Every structure is written in C-alpha cells, then in structure tokens.
C-alpha cells in the first residue's frame, strides 16, 4: 500500500474522452491518447489493499488487483505487468471492453467512488507493450499432443494461448477471413482499435499457435473428421444465434440484425469496402435493444451520419445510485450509465423529439409493429410504453420514422446451421447451449466446450476466464490428470447476485 491515505485524499479520475465533435468524425478510440499514464499512478494509490479484496471475487479471472495497483503506484511497471498477465491473457481487451464488475465489488465503493481498476489495467497492458514486457512465451518443449480450437473470439484465443504455452500443438479454426471473432467484426474500432488484436495474434503465432481462417468446421471441414485428427477439440464458437423480433413488418427491407450491420462497418474500417451497403447515412435509424450491442450500433450510426438515431430499451430507466435492497454491494448494479456512444448521441441530439439531455434512448418502450411503403421498405416503427412486467400502457403509443431498423436483442446459443453440432453429435441444453460436465467435457469424448457457446451470452472477462479454465481441463485430459494451468472458474460458476 504505497499511500495509506490515498483513498482519502485523491478523488476518482477517469481516462478522459476526446471531444464529441472530434471523435465522431473518425473511428479511432474515444479516449484522449496519452492522457491515462499521468493520472493512473495516483488512481492506483487509492486502492486500500483490503484484507478481503472483494474485487477478486467480482472478477471471474481472479485478477490480483491490489498487487498490481500497489506496483503501479510504486512505478514498477514490469512487476505490475507480470502480476496482471498471471491471470489475464489479454488485459488490453478487458481494459477497454469489460464493464468492470471488479469496480462494483471494490470495498471503497461501499461509500465512495471505486478505484479506477479498469483504467489501471489498461495502462499496465499498454505500458507492457511499449516497454517490451509482453513478448512471446513459447514452450520449452512440445508434448506431442494436438488440439483444435474452433472459434477465435476471446475464449478460443485464451484457450489456444494457454495450451500452446503448455507445450501442445494448437490450431485455431475461424470461419471469418480474419482472426478475432466478435472483437474483429462485432466491436467497433472506436471502442477497441484492431491494432491491439493484431498485436496479440502475432504474439501467439510467434509462440507456435497455428491459425486457419475462412474455414467453417461442419461445412468446409468435416466435424467428425476433424475430431479424429486431433487429440482434443475445444468448441469456442460463441453464441451467434441471434434473437428475433416477432412483430408484423419484420420482413420489410431495411430491417436487419445488429450483427449484419456492425461487421460491414468494421470491414469499411479494415479497408475491405469503401462504404457499407447497410450504411445509416442520411437515414432515420431505430435500434431495438438497450444493451451494449445496441450502443455499438448507435455509435456506428452517428459516425455514418445518420439523420436521426433512437435506441429502444424495454426496461425502465435505471437510477443513478445502487439500490442496497435489491442490488447490494458487492454485486454489479443496474445503473444509468452514459457510454461514449450515448454521450455522442446526447450532444448531437440525434433522437427525434428528444429532450435537451437526451442520449437517444427511449426507456420502457416495446415495439408493436413496423410499417413500410409500397416498395416494401420500412418507413416507421410503432411502439408502446410498458410497465415493469412489460405490459402495454394505454395511451402511450408512438410512431418513429425509420429507414433502417437494427435488432440488438442478444443471442441464444451457437449457430446450428453450419453442421458442427450435428456433425459431432453434441448434446444441447434446453436453452440451446452446448451441454458439458463439471470438467467442460461434452458428451463426445475428447471434445470440450467453453465460452458463450456453452455458458450463454456473457461478458468478455467471463469469456477469457472460460478459455483459461477449459485449457486447464484439456491439459489435464492430455497428460497424467494434472495441470499447472490457471483455472479461475468452473462451468457452473455465475456472477455474484443476491
């Protein structure tokens, strides 16, 4: 504990964002470059080095947060990077994309603003790359065993890196033309620039991991044949089966899933396309769904110069303070939060009929139907206000102009149309996810499942934790029943709730 009074004398200060008018003209990350390091040392000093650090329990990775906070406060960046990477393969990803349940569990958060754990994590990761602390770590010797990892999102990459470093020969199969999964084509560049992803991929290549892109297992490669070629298979395909909006007018042209829209915008940033065929430019956009994917669509539509943007959230607007009766510390509370995208929409006032403080969200709103013109193109979305039980409230119907409707309603499980599930004969849970036992093993010998494909839609920090845990299970399966790999969670662990 570098400064025993740090949490009493230093107020919370977060990584500042660039001015809205500047950042909506590009696709770079929203934060001010270079503005984090000058403030992160005193912020790390606010950590109280608790006797029982609940941030450990709130983080599924079990990150050693008080340890690397103290090291950053003492300006020992190398040691801080070592402690951070001991539990997290990709801290620059979580430092940018995770909603930080660790901060909700910070003991200081009982009655003060929490330590900026997420910012400190990101600063350590970035400094590690700048100073050369994040070099490849190839194994000393190979085990002679082979593993196929299907899917290259955070779960697949974490599992592959852990297993490669343990000495196994690992090949990652990805159906897209580039590695990264949702981090590549789902997460917009203004939330995480792809250079961070490319850096880790090159690190993994140098360690010995092989990558097979543009390969759909079950279609391009026979699933059963792949299983026969490898000593073990890890399924980490994510939950890519999107939920639908079952209302009249869903068939109209101009109504698309968020994951049809976002990848095209990312491909423009990658240089594959000059403009997106689903560009929001000049169109009235309505986003159905109040989560992070909806916010990603919002920020993208603003940058594409939409005429207006409105995001519908079926839930009531949350309060600004934790409800200690229903969401007591250290659980992660549902609060009103202003993401960078919402901040942009609020300042630009892109929502039609918006109040001066609008962030483009309409809360407690449910879609009734979509209507279009004579050519079958969507032109309006009809909605109604709902109560906490989602019951329509009389007299609350409204009509929003809509030339592009984006559905961001979440995902239910892995895609079953590519032939992987059927080809391997995998058993599924009633909700559509892949069934597995306490050791991450499926009903097919030698086949393991991890991440959203088995857990269901979750956070990136849980995805990486699943990847590390399944790697330990596979390593145990391939060796003498023991492993030295870190296994932070079990398949049935869940976030803290009351």
UniProtKB/TrEMBL annotation:
Transmembrane segments: none
Keywords associated with the record: Amino-acid biosynthesis, Glutamate biosynthesis, Oxidoreductase
Domain 4Fe-4S ferredoxin-type: residue ranges: 36-69
Superkingdom as given in the UniProt entry: Bacteria
Matching InterPro entries: 4Fe4S_Fe-S-bd, DPD_II, FAD/NAD-bd_sf, FAD/NAD-binding_dom, Glut_synth_ssu1, Glutamate_Synthase, Helical_ferredxn
Pathway(s): Amino-acid biosynthesis
Name recorded for this polypeptide: Glutamate synthase subunit beta
Organism ancestry: Bacteria, Bacillati, Actinomycetota, Actinomycetes, Kitasatosporales
């Amino acid at each position: 504990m570098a400064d025993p009074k740090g949490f009493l004398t230093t107020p919370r200060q977060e990584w500042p964002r660039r001015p809205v008018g500047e950042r909506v003209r590009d696709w770079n990350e929203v934060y001010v470059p270079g503005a984090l390091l000058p403030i992160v040392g005193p912020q790390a000093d606010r950590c109280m080095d608790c006797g029982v650090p609940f941030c450990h329990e709130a983080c599924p990775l079990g990150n050693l947060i008080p340890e690397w906070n103290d090291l950053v406060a003492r300006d020992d960046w190398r040691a801080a990077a070592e402690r951070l990477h001991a539990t997290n393969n990709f801290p620059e990803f979580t430092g940018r994309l995770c909603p930080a349940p660790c901060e909700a569990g910070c003991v200081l958060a009982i009655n003060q603003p929490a330590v900026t754990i997420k910012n400190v994590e990101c600063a350590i990761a970035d400094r590690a790359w700048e100073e050369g602390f994040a070099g490849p770590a190839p194994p000393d010797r190979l085990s002679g065993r082979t593993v196929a990892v299907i899917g290259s999102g955070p779960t697949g990459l974490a599992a592959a890196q852990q297993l490669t470093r343990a000495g196994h020969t690992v090949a990652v199969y990805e159906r897209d033309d580039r590695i990264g999964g949702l981090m590549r084509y789902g997460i917009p560049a203004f939330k995480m620039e792809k250079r961070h992803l490319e850096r880790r991929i090159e690190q993994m290549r140098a360690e010995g991991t092989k990558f097979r892109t543009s390969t759909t297992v079950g279609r391009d490669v026979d699933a059963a044949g792949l299983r026969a070629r490898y000593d073990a298979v890890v399924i980490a395909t994510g939950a890519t089966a999107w939920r639908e909006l079952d209302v009249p007018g869903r068939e109209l042209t101009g109504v698309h899933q968020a994951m049809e829209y976002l990848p095209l915008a990312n491909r423009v940033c990658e240089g594959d396309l000059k403009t997106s065929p689903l560009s929001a430019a000049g169109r009235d956009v309505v986003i159905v769904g109040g989560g992070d994917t909806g916010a990603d669509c919002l920020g993208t539509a603003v940058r594409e110069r939409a005429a207006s943007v409105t995001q519908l959230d079926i839930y009531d607007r949350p309060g600004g303070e934790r409800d200690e009766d229903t969401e007591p510390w250290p659980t992660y509370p549902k609060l009103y939060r202003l993401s960078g995208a919402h901040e942009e929409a609020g300042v630009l006032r892109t929502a039609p009929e918006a109040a001066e403080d609008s962030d483009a969200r309409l809360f407690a709103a449910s879609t009734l139907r979509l209507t279009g013109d004579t050519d079958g193109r969507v032109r309006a979305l009809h909605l109604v206000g709902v109560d906490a039980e989602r019951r329509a409230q009389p007299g609350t119907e409204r009509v929003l102009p809509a030339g592009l409707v984006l559905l961001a309603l979440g995902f239910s499980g892995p895609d079953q149309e590519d032939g992987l599930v059927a080809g391997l004969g995998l058993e599924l849970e009633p909700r559509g996810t892949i069934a597995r036992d306490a050791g991450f093993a499926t009903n097919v010998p030698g086949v393991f499942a991890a991440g959203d494909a088995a857990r269901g839609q979750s956070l990136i920090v849980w995805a990486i934790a699943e990847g590390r845990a399944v790697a330990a299970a596979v390593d145990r399966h391939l060796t003498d029943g023991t492993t030295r790999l870190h296994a932070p969670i079990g398949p049935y662990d869940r976030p803290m709730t009351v």
